[in-house]
Amino acid sequence: MFIIRYLRMKRIVILIVLVFFTLSISAQKDSLQLGDRYADDQIYASISYAQFFKQPTPISRSGFSYAFSLGFIKDVILNKKGTISIAGGIGYGFDFFNHELKVEELNNVTVFNTSNNLTSNVFKSHNLEFPIELRWRTSTIKRYDFWRIYGGVKFLYNLSNKFQYVENSIESTFKNVSAYNKFQYGITLSAGYDEFNINLFYNLTPVFNNATINGEDINSSILKFGLIFYIL
User: Fold this and answer.
1) Of 80, 85, 93, which is closest to residue 132 (Cα–Cα)?
2) How do residues 102-111 score in pLDDT, each as one tens digit?
3) How far apart are CA 144 and CA 32, in angstroms?
4) How far apart (Å, rounded) are the C-alpha atoms in residues 182 and 49?
């Protein structure tokens, strides 16, 4: 079963990458159209430092964690100069967290706890991303190094998740836990010059559904900040 799921996920990722590169070829043509109206169709790639926030009382901040994503996003111009647009796209994202929350799946029920005996505790997720942005930039049809500010919302659909910890030298792994929130969304902001831009993602939905620990609701969400690169 694991091998089948892995192969299915691998095929999905390969298909997405092929779509990105096919669309990027047409994006080059769109960006170089003559006339006042043009679009910066772009491939994006980001790498971010990530943290859980809104953690329950027994849990402190997560350890060193990171995320990266890759996708394609297409412009729809809103003004004649091409400085304002809306954009929508599709991408793939991966999250890796060192954290303290002990997550188990017992009889199709997700159980949350803490333990002082954990020597390793990581969480990994693979997601489809659907970004929607309102964009402002100083580009022209002949100028490709420009200032930009892009803000919007990103929707996430979880393809798979895995919680893995080592306690008293015994490793336990739980995949696709039932309490995990497969549909999430958050606000995004990126700003910078040319290819180098800072990027922020603030999740507006909790990672888990109907989750509690010691009678306290678990409303943990994800904050990411790092760099995002845009390629014409």
Assistant:
1) 85
2) 999 988 889 9
3) 10
4) 21
Query: What separation in angstroms does the CA of 179 have from each of 54, 61, 184?
Result: 17, 21, 13
Exposure string over 126-143, b if 16+ CB within 10 A, otherwise e: bbbbbbebebebebeeee
pTM of the model: 0.80
- CA–CA dist 104, 216 (Å, integer): 17
The total of other beta-carbon atoms located within 10 Å of residue 20's CB is 20
pLDDT in tens, 82-128: 789 999 999 999 999 999 899 999 888 899 988 888 889 999 999 99
Q: What is the DSSP string of 83-118?
A: -EEEEEEEEEEEEEEE---EEEEETTEEEEE--TTE
Residue 114 CA: distances (Å) to CA of 99, 120, 167, 181 = 11, 13, 11, 20
What SS3 class is residue 56?
Answer: coil
Contact 130, 89 (CB under 8 A): yes
Question: Which residues have C-beta within 8 Å of that of residue 78, sequence separation ≥ 6?
Answer: 84, 85, 86
